[in-house]
Amino acid sequence: MRPSHIFILLLIALIIFGAPKLPEVARSIGQSLKILKKEVRELSDDDNNASVASANDTAGTSGGAA
């Protein structure tokens, strides 16, 4: 995005929400993004833990009695 596009978006937001509401809207968007990042990180950690556990299970069973 070019700087002019950002300026136009901010101007439209100012017109729609009004100056007193903009900090509240920005705060709620920030909180939503924080929650989203946390959930994505947790899902990624869960996937990584599951793949490590699966690899450990596979390694443990393949080295069994011959």
How much is the average pLDDT?
83
Q: Report the portion of residues in β strands.
A: under 5%
Radius of gyration: 24 Å
The span between the termini is 62 Å
Q: What's the total count of β strands?
A: 0
The largest β sheet comes out as: none
Unreliable segments of 5+ consecutive residues? none
Question: What's the number of helices?
Answer: 2
Helical proportion, percent range: over 70%
Element-by-element helix/strand order: HH
Structural class: mainly alpha
Shape designation: elongated
Structural overview:
With 66 residues, this protein is mainly α. It has two helices and no strands. The chain is 85% helix and 0% strand. The N and C termini lie far apart (62 Å).
What labels describe this entry?
66 residues, 0% strand
Walk me through the topology:
Blueprint: H1 3-17, H2 22-62
In short:
This protein is 85% helix and 0% strand. The chain has 66 residues and is an all-alpha fold.
